[in-house]
Amino acid sequence: MNSAIFTKDFKPRPFWWEAHEPKPLPEVDLPKQARVVIVGAGYAGLNAALELNREGLDCIVLDANEPGFGGSSRNGGMVSGGVNVGKRYMAKAMSDAEAAPFLNDAADAFSHVETLIARENIDCGWHRAGYFLGAWCKSHYDSMAHKVELLNETAKSEAYIVPPERQREEIGSDYYRGGMVVGRAGHLHPALFFKGLLDLCQQRNIPIATKTPATKLTQTGSGWRVDTPRGSIEAGDVIIATNGYTGDVTPELKRRVVPVGSYIIATEELPPDLAATISPKNRSFADTRRVLTYYRMSPDGRRLIFGGRAKFGHTDPVETAPILYGFMTDRFPQLKGSKITHAWTGNVAFTLDEMPHMGKFDNMHYALGCNGSGVAMMSYLGHQTARKIAGKVNHVCAFDRPEFPDHALYTGNTWFLPWIGRYFRTRDWLDRRFG
Fold first, then answer.
1. Which of 106, 226, 273, 277 has a Cα at 20 to 30 A from 355?
2. What is the pLDDT of residues 136-183, one digit of tens each?
3. CA dist., res. 103 & res. 154, Å (int)
4. What are the chain's domains?
5. How many angstroms separate the CA atoms of 80 and 97, rounded?
6. Helix 144-155 and helix 96-120, axial crossing angle in degrees, nearest 10
7. Residue-by-residue DSSP string for 77-136
């Protein structure tokens, strides 16, 4: 471990947990019956529970750990309006007309989060400050003009191109070859956003059973039997909302999502003049590399939260922190010498077509596959799934489709991820050198 980059009080845990650390809730009695059982107490699960409750349908949420222990309290807290949905898949497999419904509904996902925060007065450091996507190479920059046009037309993204000579207006770095801004984007404190959802569920007496995994799901004539270590529940419907933590209880869904570790570091509090050089307009940031990085200032503007695919697979976040530190100082040389107070990891759920999915598999509802857009997409898909069960949908969500691809050689074991990482790094090097 390169101890020189860590503060003396460094913590190998999420920075966000300083404000809200997931903890077990008081034990609730499991009902014998429930109209809906939701497996997974993250963004998707709680959004589904809130909407079901609003429609007068009783439900219970089960979680194998503490509510929010997974990606919902570990992510970067960036919220976009469709810019990240199906990036490579759409570019290769869809026409603009085919892509439009997905981008439109992804824009609705942004609206859902923003409206929910405002309506329920969730104090989570919400900043609608826009998003800058840095072009890794000139060919990536050249392709952005068409993407801006499509985003503005279908997702009302308020997007525009930023040429290299004006890049410093958006980001305190010369690292990229220009980029684009998406005005309809923001960032928040992910753990406090989750806490807001949890508080709403508790205020509305929605039962949440922590440390209560679903161990077996059995389809019955009228619905489902959900077995847990504490007993069984007869349910009319089941929603699987486990995303990057989907396990063996749903093997057919486990083989359709690929959990990938995403790694994040937080700097110590920076001097105000130094912090001001990083993000002149308080944007959130990402780039077009295959080995993605993403970052933003903390809600109070005092430290940089910097994340990325430091390694493919799952490893100790302390081991990956020096890699992220190198990525960070490549982009911001002015941060050399600044130290890290926190380093952590959480699972992102990728799908084989790089698209989020909701729907039914063998009569079981699911909302899975955020592909790195979890705050907006998982919240939205949970909400939409609940509306579908309640019979309140105004239109069929674009992400609600029968196709949810799998692969004959993938059963949930991610042994191949390091090889994909090597391939991506090679492609990134070639793009930077020749693109």
1. 226
2. 999 999 999 999 999 999 988 999 999 999 999 999 999 999 999 999
3. 6
4. 3-434 (3.50.50.60)
5. 21
6. 60
7. -EEESSTTTTHHHHHHH--HHHHHHHHHHHHHHHHHHHHHHHHHT--S--B---EEEE-S
Task: Give the type of residue at 171.
Answer: I
Residue 59: which H helix or E strand, with range?
A: strand 59-62
How far apart are the C-alpha atoms of 140 and 42, rounded to whole Å? 34
d(CA 287, CA 150): 19
Among 82, 72, 81, smallest CA distance to 243 is for 72
44 phi/psi in degrees, rounded to 5: -65, -45
Q: Looking at this protein, which amino acid is placed at residue 71? A: G
**CB 428 within 8 Å of CB 139:** no
Please tell me the predicted confidence (pLDDT) of residue 82: 65
**Total H helices, total E strands in the chain:** 11, 19
Q: How many angstroms separate the Cα of 140 from the Cα of each of 87, 136, 145, 176, 427? A: 12, 6, 10, 10, 13
pLDDT digits (tens, 9 = 90+) for 210-244: 999 999 999 998 899 999 999 999 999 999 999 99
Q: Which two tokens stand for residue 384?
A: 């939409």
d(CA 187, CA 168): 20
Residue 349, burial from CB neighbour count under 10 angstroms (0-12, 13-18, 19+)? buried
- Model pTM score: 0.96
User: Which residues, at least 6 apart from 281, have a Cβ–Cβ distance to it below 8 Å?
Assistant: 129, 130, 169, 170
Which pLDDT value is given to residue 407?
93
What's the confidence (pLDDT) of residue 85? 66
Closest CA to 293 of 275, 280, 311, 279: 311
Low-confidence ranges of the chain (pLDDT < 70): 1-2, 82-93
Backbone angles phi, psi at 11, to 5 degrees: -130, 125
Taking the C-alpha atoms of residue 306 and residue 295, their distance in angstroms, rounded to an integer, is 4
